[in-house]
């Protein structure tokens, strides 16, 4: 029983970490794209 809980907790941790990583990556990409567009406008 404890082993199943441990595996479940590990999966949840990895999924949340991957989700956070993806969101940060997307946010950074969007920011850099906006900066490039701002430079082009000027």
Question: What this model shows, in words?
Answer:
The chain crosses the membrane at residues 6-24. Keywords: Membrane, Transmembrane, Transmembrane helix. The chain is mainly alpha-helical and 42 residues long. It has one domain. 95% of the residues lie in helices and 0% in strands. It contains one helix and no strands. It has one helix spanning 2-41. The protein is rod-shaped, with a radius of gyration of 18 Å. The relative contact order is 0.08.
Given helix and strand content, the structural type is mainly alpha
What is the molecular shape? rod-shaped
**What's the domain count?**
1
Distance between the termini: 62 Å
User: Mind summarizing the main beta sheet?
Assistant: none
Number of helices: 1
Query: Nearest-angstrom radius of gyration?
Result: 18 Å
Poorly predicted tracts of residues: none
Order of helices and strands: H
Strand content: under 5%
**Average pLDDT rating:** 90
Into which percent range does the helicity of residues fall? over 70%
Question: Based on DSSP secondary structure assignment, what is the total number of beta strands?
Answer: 0
Transmembrane segments: 6-24
Keywords: Membrane, Transmembrane, Transmembrane helix
